[in-house]
Amino acid sequence: MGTTETLRKLLDGRYPETRDRVRSWLSEPGNAPADDLELEEHRARVLAWAQELSSQGDTAIGYPVEYGGKGSPARSVTAFETLAMGDLSLLVKCGVQFGLFGGAILHLGTGRHHERYLRDVASLELPGCFAMTETGHGSNVQALGTTASYDAATEEFVVHTPHEAARKDYIGNAARDGRMAVVFAQLIAGGEQRGVHALLVPIRDDDGASLPGVRLEDCGPKLGLNGVDNGRIWFDHVRVPRENLLDRYATVAADGTYFSPIENPTKRFFTMLGTLIQGRVSVSGASISAAKVALTLAVRHALVRRQFGPPGEEEALLMDYRTHQRRLLPALATTYALSFAQQRLVDELDVVFTTDADDRLRRQLETLAAGVKSVATWHASDTIQRCREACGGAGYLRASRFAALKADTDVFTTFEGDNTVLLQLAAKNLLTDYKDAFGELDPLGLAQFVAGQAWGVLTERTPLRKLVDGGDLRSRDTQLDLFRWRHEHLLESAARRLKRGLDSGRDPFSVLVDCQDHVLEAARSWVDLVVLESFPIDPAVDALRSLYALHTIEAARGYYLEHGRLSGGRSKEVVKTVNALCAELRPDVGALVDAFGVPENVLTPSEPVTA
Amino acid sequence: MGTTETLRKLLDGRYPETRDRVRSWLSEPGNAPADDLELEEHRARVLAWAQELSSQGDTAIGYPVEYGGKGSPARSVTAFETLAMGDLSLLVKCGVQFGLFGGAILHLGTGRHHERYLRDVASLELPGCFAMTETGHGSNVQALGTTASYDAATEEFVVHTPHEAARKDYIGNAARDGRMAVVFAQLIAGGEQRGVHALLVPIRDDDGASLPGVRLEDCGPKLGLNGVDNGRIWFDHVRVPRENLLDRYATVAADGTYFSPIENPTKRFFTMLGTLIQGRVSVSGASISAAKVALTLAVRHALVRRQFGPPGEEEALLMDYRTHQRRLLPALATTYALSFAQQRLVDELDVVFTTDADDRLRRQLETLAAGVKSVATWHASDTIQRCREACGGAGYLRASRFAALKADTDVFTTFEGDNTVLLQLAAKNLLTDYKDAFGELDPLGLAQFVAGQAWGVLTERTPLRKLVDGGDLRSRDTQLDLFRWRHEHLLESAARRLKRGLDSGRDPFSVLVDCQDHVLEAARSWVDLVVLESFPIDPAVDALRSLYALHTIEAARGYYLEHGRLSGGRSKEVVKTVNALCAELRPDVGALVDAFGVPENVLTPSEPVTA
Questions:
Q1: What is the C-alpha separation between B342 and B78, in angstroms, rounded?
Q2: Which of A211, B207, B330, B462 counts the most CB atoms within 10 A of its CB?
Q3: Mean pLDDT across the stretch A244-268?
Q4: Are the beta carbons of A310 and B572 separated by less than 8 Å?
Q5: What residues of chain B lie within 8 A of the CB of A309, using their CB?
């Protein structure tokens, strides 16, 4: 069928062969998601799968060619995204090992770390942990409690957990498989606190016993992702050699002299964190894939399941009810939209990591990743839930895959950056850019921005144009105009409110807290706009784009109406057009999910039984 | 603290001692929710708990005094609601055994069934199933496939599963414990189809082996509620004696003569189903309790957890961020609101089942139960999810209770009536009532209503008043006016649209499908109104009522603005007032969740560890 093929091409983007390779692995017998294993069995299965993938060379795609890789972050993320259609514990295990652990060595370490470790990481000879989060600090990484004090006498760092809240927590690979950890700790060198840095710390010997001074504990069963062995780590004055510091952004000389090419400690910290952005981009892509699996299940169910109907006739298909169309089709259109936005995000990631990208491009990537990750993971949670409900009792059986999809993706909204915190990060960057337009650069973000001075220009700008209430609602230009207007208006008014608060002499933190919901909405509206812009200009996805756009406008119509940007009549027209688009897309809905290319193997709902 | 006590009194309503009795049972060691058991262990534990409750006489509260009960449906539902703070598998097991199985015998059977079975049901000597749902039919019960054909030669009914889609599915107690089932089947007597009726069919012998002609299968692990043994049942010409027909609404004489006091088969069917409404009311109450548990966990976490903050100072409590207040406080206010609405629902249930209530009261109860159950169970799903996210990684551990809360309550949105179908039922009744106001009674519901004729009057009514854009947003009267306006406007315009569609000669089913989203919104707005009305007039809950009301208006402000019922400025004032109310309630938030009276025993999050 032509439609499916055209759509598949658009969805698969630049790397169809990478996707097909993973699809074909998932389709092999034995590689379907596990839904029936005990904790330890599941962990063992996941490890074995990861080993198989690594033996096929599929786990180093993002690493440099000299270490067995293909030097392609974009293909690496694309493969990861596709793997997310299968067992999500396997996905996260791979993310921890090859993405976070290996990625930290790659991006924060230097040549000798790469030379010594990267091959073993890719081959899983050296299973490792990314020990950043602590019980007391998840989002605010700058305030971590673990310390790494340099002892010039022995040329070692002493890694220590000073109090209970500073234990490393929820660390993947820590409970069972990890042999080494990248530990994020407050570096103390030359008698001074130098901020958070990362070091390599061995945690288990070759027999799997924990090393002296290292205490390990299993986090035990989790809500989901039980094939991943998350654990806790305490360090009791554990000594590691000086060269274990991942020293791309800072070095400590034998005598304890600290040097970093980035003088400002906050800028240094955010630069280091910034290199780890691939994890966030990967989770974003994975969540979109999970939504595709859920939609494929729910749409196919709705195309065979009948319930109620006109008297005396065959019962109607669920898919023919408007409520059911409303439930599934906007979510389907949004999933397409986010797929295209994800492609753009992956392209930007590739540019930043394979070219000599400047700060502006890096910050642009950071903003986009933060925004798309938040929106995509919330979308996945919501979509999987609505799809489960749309399948009724059948969707509640563990065999239906909804159990795993729901449970496993749940944490996507809070790991690799809590969504609320990420939207704030995006907002901070957008406000900084906004200020840039007036000639001020403040890379340190919102707090400083709020505390800044030269905002006078803001109030002198001409008021935002009010567009006339016209234009075809189905045209891309009209849709973009509406999205842009909402974003500009939200951002400008947020900036004004912040400025007003500061001008009145209130303390910056409380000014910021007061505007927090407004600031978040500004970021959200920007993501909406970027997502809309990402749609390819292709008649095959015109109706999907309109449905995404108008459904988004419908949800925000209170804002448009409040500000006179939509009239009451026009707003009602938006609602009607959403309904009309659902009806128009109804005949193609099977093709629309087929185009996702979810391997049949991973779709194992209880068979729909019909009379 | 005065606030907690006052609020607890309001929340506990008429039956504080019933609630406290269950709270005290839940607080006993060994009665905390199970989060670490294998499937069969969990099932065994749940059965043992249910036996313990029954040995204490707590499972027959709703049954007549002569069978060991207390004749109080209200107290029964209240006890059930409170039990929902604990292990939800136990709750659903009790619901299946004492509520659905026992309730069907009580309400559809007659004296000899009560005499013979009710004591054994209450004591769990006779574990039983409520075998209504089939693989092919969940919502549309009228179209079930199982048959029960009367054989006058032997004075027996022959119960049969004619095809695969007619197997009974997801039936609680069927996989392991059930000895007998109330089976819903198409009755065939005197050579004629008589519609769906219920009969008692033994399914297992005393040793637990399935009886001849009965095939039983375990549904296996589910997304949640794994302490309940759901299963499938097939009948192969199973014979049961004539007296096994639950014959309150229809009898079959020895010679096969069928008689029912309710002549109209559809009316008879809905009357029979109507008596089973307690299950729906119970699930509604249970979901509100589950939301209370989640909110207690998340609010307490937010009162100890600090993250980020003003430079150089202690980090700020999560609860002091506006985004966090926005996340939790409207959900908290809505939980209060739904608690009060649930009290009203339980009161109406009690009146209908303990007095000689007329059809009007019964239909009113049906509408209210359908509406509140939908809104409450969706609210619970949403609230539990937002609370999980608000607890970050700690909320993702299985020990945190969020795993069980999420998984176990998930099915509440689709069992005891799929929420979408229930909102349609509510809408049907509201539209029928609306028509009644013009002198037409059509108890058969929307389809017939749509097909009806005498709607002419509708178009002659005066247009809905447009109230002036005034009144204190925090006053109950202003809030009620706004809620009423929205509901009346939605209902009247839905009725007009339906009429227009019919007048144009289109077929009624497609007219209905076209208006489905509108009709559902009308029902939803009615539930909102009823919930708002249910708030006690007491200064202790004034701010909570305003927050619930204005947050609801905020969410629907697009509609108000579209129809000129709110001005842009007024709408912005609503948003601001929601923020202000969050800030005002902030100091009391600990007391607000303490007032829920969730036993400490069931709150077992991983201890918040602080520095």
A1: 10
A2: B330
A3: 96
A4: no
A5: 509
Cβ-Cβ contacts under 8 Å for A9 (sequence gap 6 or more): A16
CB B494 within 8 A of CB B515: yes
Superfamily of domain B8-122: Acyl-CoA dehydrogenase/oxidase, N-terminal domain (1.10.540.10)
B348 catalytically annotated: no
| Residue A108 φ/ψ, nearest 5 degrees | -100, -20
Each domain of chain B, given as residue ranges in start order, spans: 8-122, 128-264, 278-446+472-600
Contact between B247 and B109 (Cβ < 8 Å):
yes
Q: Which H/E stretch holds residue B148?
A: strand B147-151
Just give the CATH number of A128-257+269-274.
2.40.110.10
**Active-site amino acid positions of A:** 416
Lowest model confidence (mean pLDDT) among A375-389, A417-431, B151-165, B501-515: B501-515
The Cα B353–Cα B99 span in angstroms is 14
Instruction: Report which residue type is found at B135.
Output: T
A198: Cβ–Cβ under 8 A, 6 or more apart, which residues? A104, A108, A182, A183, A184, A185, A245, A246, A272
What's the confidence (pLDDT) of residue B443?
30
Phi, psi angles (nearest 5°) of residue A184: -90, 125
Q: Alpha carbon of A212 to those of A201, A230, A238: distances in Å?
A: 12, 20, 8
Q: Which residue, among B135, B373, B562, would best test binding to A if mutated, counting the most A CBs under 10 Å from its CB? A: B562
Three-state DSSP state, B236? coil
* 3-state DSSP assignment of residue A193: strand
Q: Which CATH number fits domain B128-264: 1.20.1600.10, 2.40.110.10, 3.30.565.10, 3.40.50.800?
A: 2.40.110.10
Q: Which of A223, A520, A572 has its CB closest to that of B402? A: A223
Q: What CA–CA distances, in Å, run from B357 to B74, B351, B380, B549?
A: 15, 7, 31, 32
Which member of A219, A381, A609 has the closest CB to residue B397? A219
Q: Residue B35: which pLDDT band, with cuts at 50, 70 and 90?
A: confident
DSSP code for A98: I
- ipTM value greater than 0.90: yes
Identify the bridge partners of residue B199 per DSSP, sorted by sequence position: B183, B245
Q: Which CATH superfamily is domain A278-445+473-599 in?
A: Butyryl-CoA Dehydrogenase, subunit A, domain 3 (1.20.140.10)
Option in A308, A388, A561 nearest B139 (CB): A308
Q: What is the pLDDT of residue B468?
A: 55
- Sort out which chain A residues have CB atoms less than 8 A from B373's CB and list them: none
Tell if the CB–CB gap between A411 and B396 is shorter than 8 Å. Answer: yes
Size of interface A-B (CB pairs under 8 A): 224
pLDDT in tens, B161-211: 999 999 999 999 999 999 999 999 999 999 899 999 999 999 999 999 999
Instruction: Please tell me which residue of chain A has the smallest CA distance to B518.
Output: A323
> What is the pTM for the complete model shown?
0.94
Contacts of B138 in chain A (CB under 8 A): 307, 392-393
Nearest CA to CA, how far is A348 from chain B (Å)? Answer: 29
CATH 3.40.630.30 fits A2-122, yes or no: no
Q: Where are the beta strands (DSSP E) in A236-313?
A: 238-241, 251-252, 258-259
> What class, spelled out in words, does domain B278-446+472-600 have in CATH?
mainly alpha
What gap in Å lies between CA B584 and CA A363, rounded to an integer?
38
Burial of A255 (0-12, 13-18, 19+ CB in 10 A): exposed
> Does the beta-carbon distance from A223 to B166 stay under 8 Å?
no
Question: What pLDDT does A435 receive?
Answer: 67
**What would the DSSP string read from start to end of A363-432?**
HHHHHHHHHHHHHHHHHHHHHHHHHHHHTGGGGGBGGGSHHHHHHHHHGGGTSSS-HHHHHHHHHHHHHH
